[in-house]
Each structure stands twice: as C-alpha cells, then as structure tokens.
Amino acid sequence: MDKIAIAGFGLEGRALYELLKEGADIHVFDEAPVEVPSGVEFHPTLVIPADFGVVYKSPGIPTAKLSLTSPRTRVSTLMDVVLEKVGSRAVGVTGTKGKSTVVSLIHRILRGAGKESVLFGNIGVADTALLKSARPETLFVIEMSSYQLEHVSTSPHIAVVTGFYQEHLDHHGSLEKYRDAKFNISRFQLAEDVLINGADIDFPGEGRRIVLDSSLHFETKLLGEHNQKNCALAFSAALALGVSEEDARKHIATFEPLPYRLEHLGVHKGITFYDDSLATIPEATLASLGALERVDTLIVGGQDRGISFNAFSEALAASAVKTLVSFPETGPMITEGIVGKEIVHASSMEEAVRAAYRCTPEGGTVLLSNASPSFNMFKDYKDKSAQYRHWIQTLADV
C-alpha cells in the first residue's frame, strides 16, 4: 500500500485525498487542526518523516514552512497530478492578473464552438471526479497560480501567460522565486506544444511561440485596453485549438464580465460605483483607472506584501482622481507625499464608503480598487466586496 503525505487539508488537499485514496495509506500534515476522513492519520506538524517518498503540498502552505526529514522526499501538488493525467488536453493560463477572465473566455469560446471543455484549477474548480468522467476529447482549461505551478514537472499543451508583475513575494520569498514558479507553465513543453506569451519577459521551453497581434480589436463587454489584450490571448488560444476566427469573435462579443473585476454596481445618490475587489497589485488598479472615463474617488490600500509603490504613487499623483480613501497597511504608503488631492484614511469599509459619498460630487464615480490584498481587514475579496456593496446600499438609503 502506497504511503502518501498531504500537507494542508483545504480545498486542494481534500481533492488530492479523493484522487489518491484508493489503495493508499494517507497521512495529513497541517499545523492547524482539521477534520480528516476515517482511516486517515492526522499529524499536527509540517515536519515530513523520511519514510515518505513524496509530499503533496496545498497551495496555501509556503514551501519554506515544510520541513523534509529526508532530501529524497519529493514535493508535488494536485496540479502536477492533474497535468500528468490530462496530458495533451490541458490548456493552462497563468499570469499576475487576468487569469480568471482569460480562462473563462477560452472556456466560453470552446463550448460555443461545440468543443467539450471544463474549467479547472485556481478559478475555484477542483472536482477530481472530472478527471475520471471526462471523455478523451474533453479539454481542460486550467487557471494556474504561482502556488500551484511551483512544484509541477509537466507543462500544459497550450500555455497562456497574461503578464508578469511583482506579487506574492511574502509567499515565495523573492521576485526570482515567484518568476521561476511561473516559468513552469512552459518549462517542460515539447516542440508540439504552444506558448502564447503576453508578458514582457521570455518564458523557457520548446513549445511553438505565438506572437500576439497588438492591432487586433474585439467587440466585447469587457472594459479597458487590458481586456482587449485578454481577448487577444483567448482568441489566439482558441485558434490554436481549431476554432474559427468567426466563432471566436462571436463568443468574445457576448461574454459577460466576471464579478469583482471592474464590476458596475449602479448609481446611488447620483454617484456611480465600481467594484474592482480583485485588483491586488498597482498595475491592475492603473489598468482599471485607464478603462473608466472618469474616477473622482479611489479606495485604495490593504495588506502589505513587500512590493514597491513608488511608481504607482507617482501615477496617482498625476491622475485626475480627486479623492483617495486609504486603507491600512499600504494605503498610507501609497498616499504619502501626494499633494493636491483630498486624502482620507479609513479603518473600516463603512468609513470608506461614507467618505466616498461625502467627497464625490453628483455625477461622479467611485472605484474600489485596492492595489493590495485585503486579508489584514477582511476574510477575503468576497467579504470585502460584500461589505462594500452593503454600505453603498445602506448609506444610500440614509
């Protein structure tokens, strides 16, 4: 009976258990107390004994926190298992931002063109039953974070890179390690594979390179030039998979924007509100500012992950934004030294939205786009968005 270690027992840890449990002696290692299925031994530690040849690490656990008793113990992940099983049917998408939009666009185009496609990976789908039930022609469109790519030894047949910026330095420890994790999406490609690279840096591998045509323009409900690029990435991937240009453009045109990504929340007290809760790096916030004709008030700031905001602060100082509502920890760092704008420091979403109503003129626009993660104040981006929407509606009725 195979002896298997799973480090972390969240969504992916449980998916690994379902995938590997047949005929295996499974041990779960986690510093946090978690419930495990009957017959699984739980170890309240991340120290992996020498008699485990492999440990499958969940994305939320930094590799540096694992302690391997033996140098012969290999670190693997659910993503590595998935890529090995799916093989040439894998379409992988990574990048600092835009991953969910691009995988959803590709999935929509493929389904609309009559091809069998399933979503998988960081977009929130980890149903390993799909690996067993899918037909041989089913394509797996997989959103792949740096956490998931960090320990793979197989690359997808079609690899798509949306872009590369500073992010997740607290998890990886350095920009170089973050980059190296991303490189794995193409590092193991062979000549028959395809790389569509929308980043400003070269990616390794032997796959055929498809160069994006920057002159392409798409009819789409998605706002901004960054989304024109996302459409071009999805379009190129679809063509590489045999979809016609006409079909690809038709389904791009009808694609509905995903929630939390420059989402229009309506007009309240004469003020237009947008929710861009998933903008967790400066580049994403700047792209959203560029996509909107007018932003009077920007709500910015959140958890400090060690990235530089110097260029971002300069861009905000030069922008037409009149009011900056600042959340800790990074908000004061971002707004420090900016003159000629009203700056309000808020310690809760209620305070932030009150300030937005007070400072934004009728006919103006408020954008929540933090340029930082928000785990210091909120459970996650969904909690942040829910509170934003709640206070917009609550204070509109006052």
Structure notes:
There is one protein chain. This protein is of the alpha/beta class and 398 residues long. The chain folds into three domains: 2-76, NAD(P)-binding Rossmann-like Domain (Rossmann fold); 79-253, Mur-like, catalytic domain (UDP-N-acetylmuramoyl-L-alanine:D-glutamate ligase); 263-396, Protein-Tyrosine Phosphatase, Chain A. 34% of the residues lie in helices and 20% in strands. The chain has a six-stranded parallel sheet, with helices on both faces. Strands 14-15-19-16-17-18 form a six-stranded mixed sheet. A five-stranded parallel sheet has the order 3-2-1-5-7.
Summed up:
This protein has 14 helices and 19 strands.
What is the assigned CATH homologous superfamily of the largest domain? Mur-like, catalytic domain
* Adjacency order of strands in the biggest sheet: 9-10-8-11-12-13
Shape: globular
What gap, in angstroms, lies between the N and C termini? 65 Å
Radius of gyration using CA atoms only = 22 Å
Instruction: Determine the fraction of residues in helical runs and give it as a percent range.
Output: 25-40%
User: Biggest β-sheet, characterized?
Assistant: 6 strands, parallel
CATH architecture of the largest domain: 3-Layer(aba) Sandwich
**Number of spatially distinct domains:** 3
